[in-house]
Amino acid sequence: MTEDSLQQLSQRLKAFAVARDWEQFHSPKNLAMALIAECAELVEHFQWLTGEQSRNLPPEKREAVALEMADILIYLVRCAERLDIDLIDAANRKIAINESRYPAERVRGDARRADEYDPL
């Protein structure tokens, strides 16, 4: 296990919450609500930018975006810990589902939702 693993991060976040007696506030419901609020704060940084501008953020904006993404990751990892969900396993299972729903040879260059494609 590397020092930068999700498990290490989860342990550090749990210790942070325990030291502050915040476990009582970290229900999955509260963490999910905090997560969506942080997602909205991330979106605000991109509102009204062109696609090109969003790919080429100035350094100070890029740092603000990085910190919003960190907040999102923190709440997501914390929620997963509280629900005993292995995020890496869940992500790999979801990728497998998406590979089946969106076969590359069928959807290449087309960004519709899975239910918008003609049935095989």
From TrEMBL:
<dbReference type="GO" id="GO:0009143">
    <property type="term" value="P:nucleoside triphosphate catabolic process"/>
</dbReference>
<protein>
    <submittedName>
        <fullName>Nucleotide pyrophosphohydrolase</fullName>
    </submittedName>
</protein>
<dbReference type="InterPro" id="IPR052555">
    <property type="entry name" value="dCTP_Pyrophosphatase"/>
</dbReference>
<dbReference type="InterPro" id="IPR025984">
    <property type="entry name" value="DCTPP"/>
</dbReference>
<dbReference type="GO" id="GO:0047429">
    <property type="term" value="F:nucleoside triphosphate diphosphatase activity"/>
</dbReference>
<dbReference type="Pfam" id="PF12643">
    <property type="entry name" value="MazG-like"/>
</dbReference>
